[in-house]
Amino acid sequence: MVAELSALQQIINTLTGLNGLWAVIAECIVTTIYTSLGGFRISFITDNIQGGMVVGLLILGVITVGVETNIDKSLVQSSGLLRTSLLGWQLIYVLPVAILTNDFFISGFWMRAFASKTDKDLIIGTSIATVAVAIILTLVGASGLLAVWTGAWPGDPPQEGSIAFFLLLQQLPAWVVGIVIVMTVSLSTAAFDSLQSAMVSTGSNDLFRNRLNLWWIRLAVVLLIFPVAVVALKSPSILQIYLISDLVSASSIPVLVIGLSNRCYWWRGFEVVIGGLGGLLTVFIFGTIYYGNALDGANLMLLEQSLYVDDWSAFGAFVAAPIGGLLWGFGAFGLRVGIQWMLARVRGQHFDAFDRPTPPHRSLAVGPVERPSSEEDGEPVADAKASSLKGRFF
After folding, report:
1. Is the CA virtual torsion 223, 226, 231, 232 positive or negative?
2. Long-range contacts of range 226-229, CB-CB < 8 Å, 24 or more positions apart?
């Protein structure tokens, strides 16, 4: 949410020269109102609008950039973008790890997965999305090269590389820029309302187990938007915001996915928490050793120097995070099992650390499950109740 609002502010500032604060405030108000009234269904509708806007923006951008922009051939060689670099090879590892683990934290993805009527529909949808996203990222990524070769980036004063696409569009006729602004605001709004809906769902189901009135959850999300907007307006770099969250997810997701396997029923929340925190601590230890002082080691946890450094610091951080998280997780597992074994011996009780839990509800059983006919038809089951089964932390 912080990155979304921060990006909107920077884009409005770049394309119009106006203060992006008012656009941020307007987006927060509008999305809060219609998301509160329409719920998650309205998010599905705006997602369809978002898809149309992306296609329209790309078509408009490709045509106008192809017609209006002029590449300075002297900048092609001097930019060095066509030569191999240390960062380029590092990103072959860093980007897949960062993006894959971070996607596990995006509640909107999980909600759409659970909302799919069948597994076949989910596979078809994700396959289409994979092709579409690959094409979109290729075109948008190429705009960064064009922005450099046309002299639009870095600009005067120098601008963030994350808005190079919009710096390129800034050179186009005013009517094109106006359409781009409308599409950009629509895209940002559609993405922001999905995040709001996901927060409401997570708070209601995961935190309060659907025991708290939904309007109190929505009120809490509204109150949370205020600090989010303040942080977004003060954030120096969109990339750094994402990198910090990527590092956190790279630390915690590897130890978390172990517990998703039925074979690893002995894995507990204790290992996930210790592993996630231990992964970040490992990054700090690596940074302290690499730089020779604790301050720079702490700054590496925040990736203060971003990715654009001619050393192995950022790469090392994304290696240390998942490996350290797994090591700390299995260390915590050994500690927990040892403590439980000793307690069982002292108290004369059964040692149950490796006992397979028995699910009390048929929907949690392993294997195919038959659903009531009304549920198969997509209609709600009147007597359906949420399972009260909770995972064990220790």
Report:
1. positive
2. 228/1, 228/2, 228/5, 229/5, 229/24, 229/25, 229/28
Residue matched to tokens 């994979």: 130
Q: What is the pLDDT of residues 323-347, one digit of tens each?
A: 999 999 999 999 999 999 999 999 9
Residues whose CB falls within 8 Å of the CB of residue 282, separated by 6 or more in sequence, listed in order: 251, 320, 321, 323, 324, 325, 327, 328
**Interior angle at CA 284, CA 279 and CA 289, nearest 5:** 125
State how far the Cα of 50 lies from the Cα of 139, in Å rounded to an integer.
17
> CA 299, CA 285: separation in Å to the nearest integer?
11
Q: DSSP E strands: which ranges in 267-377?
A: none
Calpha distance 290→297 (Å, rounded):
8
Residue 190: per-residue pLDDT: 79
Tokens at 163, concatenated: 């808005």
C-alpha to C-alpha distance for 182 and 57, rounded to whole angstroms:
10
Is 361:387 a contact under the CB 8 Å cutoff?
yes
Task: Name the residue with tokens 């002995």.
Answer: 266
Query: Across residues 202-217, what is the average pLDDT?
Result: 81
Confidence at residue 359, expressed as pLDDT on a 0 to 100 scale: 64
- The pLDDT tens digits for 119-148 are 899 899 889 888 988 988 888 888 888 888
Nearest to 15 by CA among 134, 136, 242, 188: 188
Distance CA 169, CA 58 (A): 11
- Of 179, 160, 159, nearest to 169 by C-alpha is 179
Per the document, the length of the chain is 394
State CA 180 to chain mean position distance: 24
List Cβ neighbours of 127 (8 Å cut-off, separation of 6 or more): none
